[in-house]
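debug: dumping io for the single-chain case to check the tokenizer round-trip. Nothing else runs in this session.
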Amino acid sequence: MLGVGLPELAVILVVAVIVFGPDRLPEFARQAGRVVRQLRQFAQSTQDELRRELGPEYADLKLSDLDPRQAIRKHLLEAMDDEPTTSPTRPTLAADEAPPYDADAT
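debug: decoded output
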């Protein structure tokens, strides 16, 4: 829910009661609910219209797919999954063997 946890929600509620008063707060909550519902309906109708205009190839299109950050993240993760992960072979040391030491490198 937009990164708002229970403590933040409680603070917002207390501030709303102080600013609007307990008498007008229910009406503001109803209006906010209507606005959110209308925004969701608008977003859904826009998404449906976009799918209809683009054709059947894009039937599974989501609005989040149009976000450049999401698209880049998706393609990078797919590319990382396609690449075989090979680690360079390292010699294993025996239990009493010391690792190599290069005095010039330190």
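debug: round-trip ok. The chain has a mean pLDDT of 82.
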